[in-house]
Design a protein that fits this description.
It catalyses: Hydrolyzes free adenine bases from 7,8-dihydro-8-oxoguanine:adenine mismatched double-stranded DNA, leaving an apurinic site. The chain is α+β, with helices and mostly antiparallel strands and 363 residues long. It folds into 2 domains: 217 residues, Orthogonal Bundle (Endonuclease III, domain 1), CATH 1.10.340.30; 113 residues, Alpha-Beta Complex (Nucleoside Triphosphate Pyrophosphohydrolase), CATH 3.90.79. Helices cover 42% and strands 11% of the residues. The longest helix is centred in the N-terminal third of the chain and has 16 residues. It is elongated and about 75 Å long. The relative contact order is 0.11.
């Protein structure tokens, strides 16, 4: 098949095709499309990073019920914020959301600096594309976006070679996004670009026969839709192992400890973790002498973007623990506290019933 040059469409033609499609087929009734305040748009944009709309909707609605404005979010404890984020994944987003709320309140008088792309992009957890989306969606002012959906559309439309994470490729995509972004109907245009990538120009099975750019798409003309965008060069995904201590007291409460603010599960509450059962036993000998181990539960694997974590739950009954320390607490599975929990820990606690020392089954 002959190679085709990546012809650039006139902006007016691109915009007309896209907006005509959006008017008929786009998404017009998402929760954050009502009362499009910078706060609501911001929360939705952060939640939608690497997460599908259907998953985000119930989290967004619960979040808005508890934190209806940026002041209430800024005043909250991080634990409560992460508790509402539990299960949504990528917890750095939740931590940065909380930090950004406090910056908006303390440094911007409680008003998002939507007058300035640079000021918006400087807030924790907000980059250039997210800042553009917030400005365009909440104010209608011209701002350019380049999220994953938009990258996929533009990469296929022009058969842009190379992984979009490479600086040279990303610069090319930003230039194309700038070229096509209109001066009017910015709210609809930015939503339309995201909708096109999410509903038609999908990663695995693009619906080219329903796309308004079918006749203009270079990747489609070549029959190479699935080759674009090119994937990030793969590295071997390592596997790590950890033993999690399920230490229960006589009332069935479980000892939890808060993770450091950065790193894996930063700021969340987790079961104490050890390299192996010997290290776990050594800790018990020092901190909870007289505790007795039950048989370990069946190991299971939790997959992160850059490694796999093999978790072995190790139940134990406490002997004596004089003090839990500042970063630890007793958690009652039957009356759970509103704290942020790492996803596999939440699953373990939900399945936990007071066990005997002969318990062998896990969740």
């Amino acid at each position: 098949m002959t190679d085709m040059p990546p012809a650039i469409l006139p902006p007016a033609s691109f915009q007309q095709r896209l907006l005509d499609w959006f008017d008929e087929h786009g998404r017009h009734d998402l929760p954050w499309q009502h009362d499009r305040s910078p706060y609501r748009v911001w929360v939705s944009e952060i939640m939608l990073q690497q997460t599908q709309v259907a998953t985000v909707i119930p989290y967004f609605e619960r979040f808005m019920t508890r934190f209806p404005d940026v002041a209430s979010l800024a005043a909250a404890d991080q634990d409560e914020v992460l508790h509402l984020w539990t299960g949504l994944g990528y917890y750095a987003r939740g931590r940065n959301l909380h930090k950004a709320a406090r910056v908006v309140v303390e440094e911007h008088g409680g008003a998002f600096p939507v007058h300035s792309l640079e000021a918006m992009a400087a807030l924790p957890g907000i980059g250039r594309s997210t800042a553009g989306a917030i400005i365009a969606q909440s104010t209608g002012r011209r701002a350019v976006i380049l999220d994953g959906n938009v990258k996929r559309v533009l990469t296929r439309l022009h058969a842009v070679e190379g992984w979009p994470g490479r600086p040279a490729v990303e610069r090319r995509l930003w230039a194309l996004a700038e070229h096509y972004t209109p001066d009017e109907r910015l709210v609809d245009f930015t939503q339309a670009m995201m909708d096109l990538g999410a509903t038609l120009c999908r990663r695995g099975q693009p619906a080219c026969d329903r796309c308004p750019f079918e006749a203009a798409c270079v990747a489609h003309a070549r029959g190479e839709e699935k080759r674009f965008p090119e994937s990030k060069p793969k590295k071997a995904v390592p596997t790590r192992a950890t033993t999690m201590l399920l230490l229960q007291d006589r009332d069935g409460c479980v000892l939890l400890e808060q993770r450091p603010s950065s790193g894996l599960w930063g700021g969340l509450w987790s079961l104490p973790q050890f390299d192996d059962v010997e290290a776990l036993q050594a800790w018990l000998d020092v901190h909870a002498p007289g505790s007795e181990l039950a048989p370990a539960w069946t190991p299971f694997t939790h997959v992160f973007s850059h490694f796999r974590l093999e978790i072995t739950p190790q139940p134990a009954r406490i002997g004596r623990l004089d003090s839990v320390g500042e970063a630890r607490c007793w958690y009652d599975p039957c009356d759970p506290a509103s704290i942020g929990l790492a996803a596999p820990v939440k699953a373990l606690l939900a399945s936990l019933a007071p066990f005997s020392l002969t318990t062998t089954a896990g969740p």
